[in-house]
Each structure stands twice: as C-alpha cells, then as structure tokens.
Design goal:
By secondary structure, this protein is of the alpha/beta class. 45% of the residues lie in helices and 19% in strands. The protein is built from twelve helices and twelve strands. The strands form three sheets. Strands 2-1-3-4-5-11 form a six-stranded parallel beta sheet, with helices on both faces. Helix 9 links the parallel strand 8 and strand 9. Helix 6 runs parallel beside helix 7 and helix 8 packs across helix 9. Bound molecules: beta-D-galactopyranose.
C-alpha cells in the first residue's frame, strides 16, 4: 500500500510537472553509470526503471539528460578505468555500482580530483569510505530489514504448513544459498533471516550452505549437490536473492522431485521471475527490493547534483544515504507487486 502511495505520488508528480529548482543556465547534463555486472537480474531491472525515469524527467524539465552506461563485468580495475573515461567524456555526476565494495578509493580520489560527485549504489561501502569526501553518496536499502522479513516469511510458512516438518522432529532443517562472499547483502541477510526464524519460535538446524554469487545457474549446481548430500532432509531453502531461489527450484525439477516433497523456498528481490514463482506457489514468498524507488531516487539525486538543484525530493538521511524500504511479498500480496511490472 505504502509503495503504491509513493508510486502514485511519483506518477502525479511527473504528469503535472513541477517547479524543480535548478541552475537556469543548465540546458543539458550527462550522467555516467558503471555496473558491477549488467547481466545481474536485479541490477538490469533497476537500470530499466532508471532509463524510463530519465525520459520522464527530460520531458518534465526540458533539460536533455544524457546517460552513458558501462559494464565493469566483475573487474574493479576496469571499473576504475571506466570512471576515468566517464570523467573525460564530460559526465557531471557518476553513479557507481562498485565491483569490490572494499576498493572505492581510486574512484573516490578521481571524483574528488576532478570535482565530480559520485553516487554509489546497491553495493554498500563502509561508512568511513563514504566519509572521505563530502560529494560521495549511497543509494540502496537496509540489508538487515530484508533478512528479518525473509525470516518472518519462512517461519510463518514452517509453522502453518503441516507438511513442512517432513521428518516430524519439530526442528526446521535448512540450507542457505548465499550471494557473494563479503557482500553486505549476503552477510547481513543470512544472519538476520536465521535469527528471525528462531525468534519466531522455530527451532532451526543448518544442514549446509553454498555461495552461488546471486546466480541462478550456480545455485542450481550447488543445490543439486546439497540434494545429493542431504536429500529429503532439507525442509527449507533460504536464498539471499530470487535468482538463487529459482536455481534451487531448477535443481528440484531436474531431479524430478515430487512437488509435494519440495522444501519451503524463500527469496529476496521480487524480480519479474521471482514474483511469478510466488504467484505459482513454487516460492512461498520473497522480499521486495524496491528497484523503482532506488532508481528514481538515484536519478533525482544525480539530477540535483548535476544541475546545482535542490534536494527537496531526495530522501537523504544523514546528508549522504538514501535507503528505500523493503516489503514482504507472499501469495496474498503478490498481485499488487505484479501490477507494477
Ligand atoms: C542485491 C540483490 C541481488 C544482487 C546484488 C548485487 O541487493 O538482492 O539480487 O543484485 O544486490 O549487488
């Protein structure tokens, strides 16, 4: 519901136009974007929203917004070169989806030396690194919130489904499919989801875990070997994102495991395919990672920085952070999220 209010407000705002305060001499701006991996499902869906919002903002303001998007393909040194390149191409602001969240220094120094603000997004650097210069920002979400919601969905499903406790021992045996090692969303989501399950009164026992780098095919491979190892003992699959939850489902299907014998599967993101899997019941739920809200806020922030405009519509916290809230998605609520696609 809250998301709909934000969404409708944004729509009304775009349709009605507004007196956005900007430097009046500005006729066009250039925003550079570099992605850690353009084939990541969540990132590509977020960028599709970003591009749509760019056209709408151009129409609203009459200012040409040129976008240059680059893919670092998992290499931090390529990304550093791309930022240099984007600066040379005359970008007014650069949005960086860091490859290695512990290595922002080269990019930060380039921004500062050339006086080009940097908006980091999705892959959160540590606070001290963001404090190194006053023109550094971060757009994303609070990872712990998604972990708590995933844990609540899983606990709820386990407690309310008579068949969930397959061996009837009163304990939830689970496996975890984790994103990248060292990524804030992997570490925090895993920790908070498990703690929440136990806080909800479910006794839980970890059978195993595997790192699958947010990737569906890798998750299928890892799930296949966990099925070989633990077989029918797995009662719950906690995946750090939807693509990996879908990889687990691919493994169950490939192994011809009877639908009634599937473990409970929960993801995070609410990607198009993730939502479909909740709708058709293959996943018991997911947690919506607000790609529209993050894309919209990132654009408004970049626009304000590039035009010396005001920050009135940017939901800045502590002058540096934008964090959009997550939302739970289950079979009861999935339709409202599907309508957003
Ligand atoms: C997470 C998202 C993952 C993946 C990752 C990349 O927030 O849930 O699916 O996109 O970011 O950094």
């Amino acid at each position: 519901m809250k998301k709909w209010i934000v969404f409708c407000a944004a729509a009304i705002f775009f349709l009605s136009g507004c007196d956005r305060e900007t430097d009046e001499t500005v006729k066009s701006i250039k925003i550079g974007v570099t992605l850690y991996d353009q084939y990541d499902t969540f990132i590509s869906e977020m960028m599709a929203s970003f591009t749509e919002y760019v056209s709408e903002l151009e129409e609203e303001t009459g200012i040409a917004i040129n976008i240059e998007v680059m893919d670092a393909s998992g290499s931090q040194s390529s990304q550093n070169d791309q930022v240099q390149n984007l600066i040379e191409k005359g970008c007014d602001v650069i949005c960086v989806n860091l490859v290695d969240r512990t290595e922002p220094t080269t990019i930060t120094d380039l921004g500062e030396k050339n006086n080009i603000p940097i908006v980091f997004f999705n892959r959160e650097l540590v606070e001290e690194d963001l404090e190194r210069w006053d023109q550094l920002y971060y757009v994303g979400a609070d990872a712990f919130e998604s972990g708590i919601m995933e844990g609540e969905i899983a606990a709820d499903a386990f407690l309310n489904d008579a068949n969930a406790d397959k061996n009837g021992d009163g304990i939830c045996q689970y496996v975890v499919l984790e994103g990248e090692a060292g990524h804030q969303d992997s570490i925090v989501r895993t920790e908070y989801s498990i703690n929440t399950i136990m806080e909800q009164g479910v006794q839980a026992e970890k059978l195993g875990y595997a790192i699958a780098n947010w990737n569906r095919a890798q998750a299928q491979t890892k799930m296949t070997s966990m099925l070989t190892q633990y077989g029918d003992a797995i009662e719950l699959v906690l995946a750090n994102n939807d693509d990996m939850a879908l990889g687990a489902i691919d493994a169950l299907k490939a192994e011809n495991i009877d639908r009634d014998d599937w473990p409970i599967i929960v993801g995070i993101d609410g990607t198009d395919v993730g939502l479909e899997a909740v709708q058709n019941g293959e996943m018991v739920g997911t947690v919506y990672n607000d790609k529209e809200g993050q894309a919209y806020q990132m654009l408004l922030l970049a626009y304000a920085l590039a035009t010396n405009g005001d920050f009135d519509d940017v939901q800045l916290q502590d002058g540096k952070y934008v964090r959009m809230p997550y939302e739970k998605v289950t079979a009861e609520t999935v339709e409202e999220f599907l309508e957003k696609e």
